[in-house]
Design the sequence.
């Protein structure tokens, strides 16, 4: 007779077979059998967070920096509801997460039992799929399927809700099957004809641009290499979304910088004026496109995406290629090489005028700011951080707001999986727990959370997790005492009525660091910035860095509400600043 | 319509709104219906009617028929989003005026009236295969099968003849001829 295992044992056997090494979680009544089993599985390390949202974001950071799924373990009721923000965040940004939640025993479901909630009901809209395990015999299949769903196609979060009696019940275990067909949802659906069409468009184009996104990162390390090869081969300019940063080297000459609402002048103008737009693994997000009916009006549009529902969702495209980015780029490069060995040169000639135009836009130097020798400018702080950390393999996470945009603009990424930020959902409080997840996966690497003082307070408790596991994350707070992005919009759109965007009381972050048992550093003057950053980098413990920056600084350039790409609002140096009209105000 | 300057929320080229019948084959498992319905409500799609029942007991498959309205772009999104759901096997999409497809809906109509009026009521349903399922001297339950809009107009007329309650299944669909949808 085959050996029978308890539900809790089956959970761990599945995790072992899925090669899971770390789980992020928080115990509670309805998951105690699983926590009891933890001690018997030394290959799996549990990271105890301080709040379930932190577990979710830590798992996201872990997943994004490794390409492996992040695993979360929480209890029923509040445990599950607390993780909802992180699941939604992962769903918006296509991060593979497997969340295991405890549930009240089967016979109590529906009775409003203690710490009961309709977990699968609540998480249905924010997961790719979820399961309530009602029969112990289904558990091994569901666990393996959960990993399969989370990691294949467009990745995303899944949740397995396991009632406490199922964790005790016994059943046979079986290993994951090699080949699974999720109703045919994971196939590459493109063919050579489509690739030929793409190559044909590329040959004809005189003003082409690549617009790449998080899909390149999700397609794996190889996708970035293939992208670099393709971009070099074609000589086309390339711009990237917030999520795609790092797929292509940020300091390369063919790279135009990030596009979108706070993207560079050259990237947005190139998007507007191009005659061929090749979208690779991006989704025409509204922060990218600006005004839709004036979006890239003269271009042929190509969309390469693994998710068929992304195509024609926002912008109607001329050629859609559904498939894994790596595979599509590989086929394209192969076809290009086969068809025209000289394309590299002939193309470069053809598009040289286009490059001249781009150089003209570049002279605007749209990321410029007026530096100061009396007060630390936040952009300057990010630039110094970049200069002082670029020689080592650094991982950057962020919270959400002005600091996030400054980080995206001024920190140059050269490798994929080094940049973890909440783009789709825009979750303040993402960066610290995400940094913890990254540091767990890469214990020897430098991990910096570029933060704002408002965001960091939302998940501040997780510094305690960092201290417990001696994870030397660096929390680099650009402290302007405002919710900076809110303040900026209020300044531009609401007649400087700074309604509730100023934090009248803030903790002393240096003392707070000491209270948590880590290191606090403060920089108040530009002269001391470099020295203090060096001190932070050289501290082998968690650090909270309180960088006091200019309170009034705004994040530019910016596409104001209701405007297309070619009508950007440039920084204070720009004379022709577009005024935002009364009607435009309601639109941000 | 006043031209808005919104970059985000205003549909710029509002396409023609069509009625479509979406047919979804799903695993018959717990909460599958709420996944489908939740997709519609969560993304702001419309449901005019919905019919669902198990059609294949061996393979545990249910067939959901949804009548919806939307621009061509929205209808395309509905189909693509449905296909992403894990328990969904295949999705059919038919325009309401598609000649290759039969659409039918069943209604049970309760008439409370004298026998004269009941006779008139039955007469009004003549074209729609009326079957009397229950009759007393002051009431009748009539079953009819027809198109949605036919039932709409019949039930309106029957108010005069003592219609007190109508129960409708929502439309179901089947392709004509020997072909099946794949």
Sequence:
């Amino acid at each position: 007779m085959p050996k029978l295992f308890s539900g809790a044992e089956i959970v761990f056997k599945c995790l072992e077979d899925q090669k899971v090494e770390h789980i992020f979680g928080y115990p509670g009544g309805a998951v105690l059998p699983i926590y009891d089993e933890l001690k018997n599985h030394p290959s799996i390390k549990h990271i105890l967070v301080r709040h379930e949202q932190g577990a979710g974001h830590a798992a996201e950071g872990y997943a994004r920096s490794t390409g492996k799924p992040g695993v979360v373990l929480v209890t029923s009721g509040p445990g599950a509801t607390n993780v909802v923000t992180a699941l939604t965040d992962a769903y918006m940004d296509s991060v593979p997460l497997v969340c295991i939640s405890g549930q009240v025993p089967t016979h109590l479901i529906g009775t409003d039992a203690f710490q009961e909630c309709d977990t699968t009901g609540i998480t249905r809209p924010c997961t790719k799929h979820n399961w309530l395990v009602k029969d112990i015999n289904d558990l091994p299949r569901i666990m393996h399927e959960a990993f399969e769903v989370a990691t294949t196609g467009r990745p995303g979060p899944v949740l397995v809700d396991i009632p406490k009696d199922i964790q005790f019940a016994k059943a046979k275990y079986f290993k994951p099957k090699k080949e699974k067909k999720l109703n045919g949802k994971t196939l590459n659906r493109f063919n050579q004809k489509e690739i030929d069409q793409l190559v044909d468009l590329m040959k004809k184009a005189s003003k082409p641009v690549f617009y790449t996104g998080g899909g390149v990162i999700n397609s794996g390390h190889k996708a970035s290499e293939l992208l670099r090869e393709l971009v070099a081969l074609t000589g086309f300019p390339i711009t990237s979304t917030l999520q795609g940063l790092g797929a292509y080297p940020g300091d390369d000459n063919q790279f135009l910088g990030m596009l979108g609402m706070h993207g560079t002048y050259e990237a947005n103008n190139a998007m507007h004026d191009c005659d061929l737009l090749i979208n690779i693994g991006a989704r025409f997000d509204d922060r990218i496109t600006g005004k839709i009916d004036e979006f890239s009006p003269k271009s042929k549009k190509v969309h390469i995406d693994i998710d068929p529902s992304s195509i024609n969702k926002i912008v109607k495209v001329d050629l859609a290629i559904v498939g894994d980015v790596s595979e599509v780029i590989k086929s394209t490069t192969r076809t290009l090489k086969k068809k025209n060995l000289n394309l590299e040169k002939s193309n470069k000639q053809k598009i040289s005028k286009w490059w001249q135009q781009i150089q003209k836009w570049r002279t605007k130097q749209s990321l410029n700011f007026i530096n100061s020798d009396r007060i630390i400018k936040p952009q300057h702080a990010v630039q110094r951080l970049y200069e002082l950390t670029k020689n080592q393999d650094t991982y950057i996470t962020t919270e959400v707001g002005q600091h996030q945009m400054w980080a995206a603009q001024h920190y140059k990424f050269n490798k994929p999986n080094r940049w973890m930020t909440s783009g789709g959902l825009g979750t303040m409080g993402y960066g610290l727990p995400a940094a913890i997840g990254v540091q767990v996966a890469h214990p020897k690497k430098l991990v910096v959370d570029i933060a704002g003082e408002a965001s960091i307070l939302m998940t501040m408790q997780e510094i305690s997790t960092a201290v417990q596991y001696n994870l030397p994350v660096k929390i680099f707070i650009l402290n302007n005492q405002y919710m900076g992005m809110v303040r900026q919009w209020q300044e531009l759109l609401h007649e400087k009525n700074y309604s509730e965007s100023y934090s009248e009381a803030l903790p002393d972050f240096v003392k707070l660091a000491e209270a948590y048992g880590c290191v606090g550093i403060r920089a108040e003057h530009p002269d001391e910035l470099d020295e203090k950053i060096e001190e932070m980098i050289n501290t082998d413990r968690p650090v909270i860095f309180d960088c006091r920056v200019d309170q009034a600084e705004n994040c530019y350039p910016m596409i104001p509400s209701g405007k297309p790409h070619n009508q950007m609002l440039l920084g204070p140096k720009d004379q022709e600043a577009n005024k935002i009209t009364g009607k435009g105000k309601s639109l941000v | 319509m006043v031209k808005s300057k919104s970059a985000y929320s205003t549909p710029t080229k509002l396409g023609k709104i069509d009625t479509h019948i979406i047919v979804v084959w799903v695993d018959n498992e717990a909460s599958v219906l709420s996944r489908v319905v939740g997709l519609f409500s969560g993304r702001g799609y419309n449901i005019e009617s919905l019919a669902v029942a198990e059609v294949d007991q061996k393979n545990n498959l249910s067939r959901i028929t949804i009548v919806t309205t939307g621009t061509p772009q929205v209808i395309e999104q509905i189909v693509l989003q449905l296909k992403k759901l894990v328990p969904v096997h295949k999705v059919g999409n038919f325009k309401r005026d598609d000649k290759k497809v039969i659409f039918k809906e069943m209604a049970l109509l309760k008439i409370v009236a004298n026998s004269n009026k009941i006779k008139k009521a039955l007469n009004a349903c003549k074209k729609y295969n009326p079957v009397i399922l229950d009759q007393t001297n002051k009431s009748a339950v009539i079953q009819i099968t027809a198109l949605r809009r036919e039932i709409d107009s019949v039930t309106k007329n029957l108010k005069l003849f003592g219609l007190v309650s109508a129960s409708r299944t929502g439309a179901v669909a089947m392709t004509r001829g020997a072909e099946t949808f794949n």
User: Anything to note?
Assistant: Chain A touches chain B through 34 residues (CB under 8 Å).
